[in-house]
Amino acid sequence: MTDSLAGNAVSDAPPDMSDDTLVRVDNLVKYFPVKGSGMIGRTVSHVQAVDGVSLTVKRGQTLGLVGETGCGKSTLARCIAGLIPATSGKVYFEGKDITNLPRGTMRPYRREIQMIFQDPYGSLNPRRRVGSIIGEPFAIHKTATGPQRKKAVQDLMERVGLNPEHYNRFPAEFSGGQRQRIGVARALALRPKLIICDEPVSALDVSIQAQVLNLLADLQDDFGLSYLFIAHDLEVVRHVSDAVTVMYLGRVAEFGPGDQVYDHARHPYSAALLSAAPAADPDAAAARQRIILTGDVPSPINPPSGCRFHPRCPKAQDRCGIDEPALESKAGDPITHLTACHFPVETGEVLARADRREQR
Amino acid sequence: MNMVRFLIRRIITGILVLWLVATGTFFLFFTAVPVGVVARNLAGRAATPGVLAQVTRYYGLDRPVLAQYLTFLHKLIKGNFGQSFLTQQTVTTIIHQDLPVTASVVVGGVLLWLIAGLAVGILSATRARSLFDRVATVGVLAGVSAPTFVVGELLIIFVFVQLNQHGISFIQTGYAPLSQGVGPWLGTMILPWITLAIVQAAVYTRLSRGSLLDTLGEDYIRTARSKGLTERRVLYRHAVRSAMTPVVSQLGIDVGALLGGVLVVEQVFGLHGLGYQVVASIPAGDQPVVIGLVILAAAFVVAANIIVDASYALLDPRVRIS
Amino acid sequence: MSVTELQFQAASVSDAPAVAVQGRSQWQLTWRRLRSDKVAVGSIIVIILMILFAICAPLIAHATGHPVDTAYPDTGEDASGLPVGPGVHGFFLGTDQIGRDLLVRIAYGARISLFVGLLTTALATIAGVTLGLVAGYFGGIVDAILARFFDAALAFPFIILALALASVFHPNLAIVIGVISFFSWAGISRIVRGQTLSLKEKEYIEAAKSLGAGSGRIMFLEILPNLLGPVLVLATLYIPTAVTFEATLSFLGIGIPEPAPSWGNILAEAQNFYNTSWWYVVFPALFLLVTTLAFNLLGDGIRDAIDPRTERLFAGSKNGRRKRGKGKGTGGLNLDQAIMVGEERDLTVDNPMPAGEG
C-alpha cells in the first residue's frame, strides 16, 4: 500500500504492481522553455509548470485534482495523456511505462486513456457532424466501420442522454451541456479505462453541471471507469472524488482520501482554499472564518525557494524558505493522507487569526 | 541605434538575395540549354560565325561551368553587364538611355497611386456609407478588375484619340524628355501615370479604407476622442499612422506588380524605357540586354523592399526590436 | 448552492430540449444566401455564359463559316488593308488586320484564357493548401523554411521570371501555366498557413490528438474543413488574377505565341489600330473585363454568403442591409486584407453559425 502513494522522492524501485493502481505518476516534471528574441533565440529561463508531482489513480475510482489557475494541473493532465512530452519523471499505466512514448507505440494506450475538455464550444470541430465526431475514435483505431459504426455511435449517444436521431447535426445546434455529452460520448467510444476530465463542468450553467456530473457518475459505475477529475471548484471535486490532490505552483501540497482532506486539511493552502469555498448553509458560512491569503500567485518562471507557498503562508517561518517540505503524513494522519508542509495545520487550529500579514 | 542595425541586417539580406538571383539567372541562361544554343542566343539571331566566336570568347562559353559562373559574377560586380551584339551598344549605355523614361513613369505613377489611393481610402473611411463612399467603392471594383494594358488602351481610345480629334494635342503618346519642357513631358506622362495608378489605387483605396475603419473602431481612438482632441487630430496623428502599416506592407509586395505595370504601360504608350527595351529584346533574341535588365530589376526590387521595410519599422517600432 | 442541492433539482428537469428546427449544414446555409444575392447570381450566369461561349468556339466558327486562323483579305479587309467593322460582310464583330474573324478569334481566346485561369488556379489551390497546411501544422523548422519561401515568392516579380524564361525557351503555353501557377500558389499557401497556425491551437485539435489521430488525419480531416470557405473565396478571386496575368503576358509577347489567339495577344496587335478600328480593341477588352469583373463579384458574393458580417461592396443589396452585430468598424474586408497582405487575420472560419445556440 505504501508504494502506491509515492512521495516526492524520486523512486528507483520498480513500479507497484498492485492490481488496483491504474495510473501512477512518479515525480513528473514539465518545464517550458522561455526563448529569447529572434528566430533562433536561446533559452532564457523556464516556466516550471509541473515540478515533481507524484500521484496514483486507482481502478474504478476518481482522483480529484484541485488548484488555482496556473498551478499546473492542466499541464499535468496533458503529460499523463501523452499530449505534451514530460521533461522528466515517469507515468505508469497498468504498470507499464508510457512516458514520452513515440506516437506509434503510444497508440494502443490512447484507447485506454481519454480526455474530456473544458470548453464545450471549442472541443468539438464545428465543421463536422456529431456522428462523425463521436465515431472518430472508431475510424482512427479501425475498430468499426459503416453501419456497425453508426450503430455504435447511436448507442453511445443514447447512453449519454442525447437523441440518436441527431446523428447528422452539427455541434452548433446543441446546447453547452449537450456538447459536453458529445465529448463524453466521444471519450467513451473505445471503452477506455481512464478518462481525464479537464474541468469538464466549469463552463456550464450550474444546473447543467449537476446533470453532467450525474452522467459521469453513472458511467463510472456501468463501465468501471477511473477518472482524473480536474477542477477549481472544490464543492464539485468533493462530490465526485474518492481521493483528492491539492496542487500549488507545480507541486503537490496535499493528497489523501476526500473526507480526510476536506474535513482535516493539513496544508495551510488547502485550508485557505476550503475556507473560501461557498457553503450552502448561510449560517455555517457566517460561522466559518475566511482565511485570506495575501499577495498574488508567484510566477512559475521564478518560483519561491523552499516551500513554494511560504510567501503567502500565514504559518510560514524561516525554515520554509529554505527547505522544501517532503510529502508525508503529518500530525498522526493515516498513511493515506500526505501533506507537504513543515508546520501543518493542527486539528482544531484556526488559521484566520494566525495571519499576521494582513495587519500593516 | 536599433534602426541602424535593422537596416544593416536588411541590406545584408538584400545582397544575399541579389546573389541568389544572379546565380539563378546564370543557370537559366547559360546552362539550361546546350552550349551552342547559348552562344546563338547571346549573339542574336543574325549572328555570323565571327560574332559567334566573339561571343564564345567574351563569355568563356568553352570553359567549364564554374569558370563561366565566376566570370559572370566578376563582371556583374564590376558593373559590366555585357553588350548587345545586335546593336553593338553596351548594356550599360542602353540602361543610361532608357532609365529617365522609366524613372519618370515609375515615380509619377507610384506617387499618384499612393496619393489617390490613400486620399480616397481615408475619405471613404471617414464618410463610410455616404454617396462618396458608394461611388468610390464601385470605382474600386472596376479598377481592381481591369488589367493595366486594357485600361491603357481604353484611355488611348477614349481620351487621346478623342482629344486629338478635337484639336487638343496636349496629350501625346511617346516620350518627351524634361529637357523639352515640363509641358510636353507632362503631356506624355499623364495618361501613363493614370494607367499605372488606376488599378493599384483601387487596391490601396480598399486596403486603406478597411484598415482605417478597423483602426477607428479601436479603443484607443475612442480614448483620444474622449480626451477632447479634434477629430482631425485624432485622425491624422493617431488613426492614420497605425492604419498605414498594412499599406506599407502591401507596398513591399507590390513592387513586383509595379514592374509588370511599367512593362505594360511603356508598351501601350510607346515609351522607350527599360520595360519597352526588355520586351523588344526577347523576340529580337538580344539576350545580353535581357540578362542585364533582369538583374537590374531584381536589384530594384531588393532596394525597394529595403526602403519599404525601413518605413514599416519607422511606423511600427516593434519590428525593429525583433 | 451546493451540488447536492442542485442534483435534486436537476433530476426533475428533463434533458435540455432538443432543437426543433431542421438543422442545416453550413454549406446549405451559404448556398441559400448566395442564391438570394442578385449580384452573385448575375456573376454566376455571366461566367457560365462565358464558359459556354468558349466551349462553343468551334461551333461559332462553323456557324459563321470563318475558321479561326483563316484570313480573308478580300472580304475581311477594306481597300487600304485595314480591318472591317462589325456587321460588315458577315463578320459580327469585325476583323483583325489580316482579315480574320474577330468574333471567332475572341471565342478561341476565351478558351485559352479560361483554361489557363481555371487550371492554374486549381493547381495552385491544391499545392498551396497542402503546403500551407504542412507549414502551419508542423511549425518549427519546416515552417520557418516554408514561410520564408512563401514570403519571398509573394514579393517576387513573376513577370521578370516569365521574361527570363521566355527569353531562353521561347514563349509557350507551358511557361505561362508554370509561372502563373507558381505565383498563385505562394499567395494561397501564405494564407492557409496563417489560418492553420491559429486553428491548430483549437481544443478540438487537441482532442483529436488525444484520440490518437495522426498528422495527416488532423490536417486534412479536422483543419481543412474549417478552411474550405476562405479557400473557396480565395480561389475564386485568384481566377481573374490568373486570367489577367495570362492576358498581360500574351500582350507583351511572352505568353501565348501567335497564331493561337489569346485575348492578350489580340489586344497587342489591336494596339496599332486604335485610331482606325476601335472594335479591334474594344471587343476583346470588353470580354476580358466582363470575365474578370464577374469572377471578382462572385468571389465577393461567396465571401459574404459564408460570413454575412463582412461588408458588401454593393451594400444596397438585400444582404448588405442585413448586417449582423457591430463588431469593430466594419470588421469586414478582412479576407481582402489577408489576401492582399497575407496577414494572419482572423477569417472568422469557425465562429459557430448562429443556429440553435444556447
Low-confidence blocks of residues of chain A: 1-17, 353-360
**Tally of domains of chain C:** 1
Low-confidence stretches of chain C: 8-21, 312-358
Count the strands of chain A? 12
Give the termini distance of chain A in whole angstroms.
Answer: 47 Å
Main sheet specs of chain C: none
Q: Name the CATH homologous superfamily of chain C.
A: MetI-like
Short description:
Chain B is mainly α. Chain B has helices spanning 2-31, 35-43, 49-59, 65-77, 91-126, 131-145, 148-165, 182-216, 219-226, 231-269, 274-284, 287-315, 318-321. Chain C is 65% helix and 0% strand.
Task: Quickly list its features.
heterotrimer; A: 360 residues; alpha/beta; eight-stranded mixed β-sheet; 11 helices; B: 322 residues; mainly alpha; 0% strand; globular
Structural summary, described in words:
The complex is a heterotrimer of chains A (360), B (322) and C (358). Chain A has helices at residues 73-80, 103-112, 130-141, 146-159, 176-188, 206-223, 234-240, 258-263, 268-276, 282-287, 351-354; strands spanning 21-35, 43-58, 62-66, 88-93, 96-97, 113-116, 194-198, 226-231, 243-248, 251-257, 327-328, 338-340. Chain A is an alpha/beta fold. Chain A has a domain at 127-188. In chain A, the strands form two sheets. An eight-stranded mixed β-sheet of chain A has the order 6-7-8-3-9-10-12-11, with helices on both faces. In chain A, helix 3 packs across helix 4 (146-159). Chain B starts with a helix and ends with a helix. Chain B has helices at 2-31, 35-43, 49-59, 65-77, 91-126, 131-145, 148-165, 182-216, 219-226, 231-269, 274-284, 287-315, 318-321. Chain C has 358 residues and is mainly α. Chain C has one domain (3-16, 24-310): MetI-like (MetI-like fold, Orthogonal Bundle), CATH 1.10.3720.10. In chain C, helix 3 packs across helix 5, helix 3 (38-55) crosses helix 12 (278-306) and helix 5 (102-138) runs antiparallel to helix 10. The longest helix of chain C is centred in the middle third of the chain and has 38 residues, at 215-252. Chain C is elongated and about 80 Å long. The two termini of chain C are 23 Å apart.
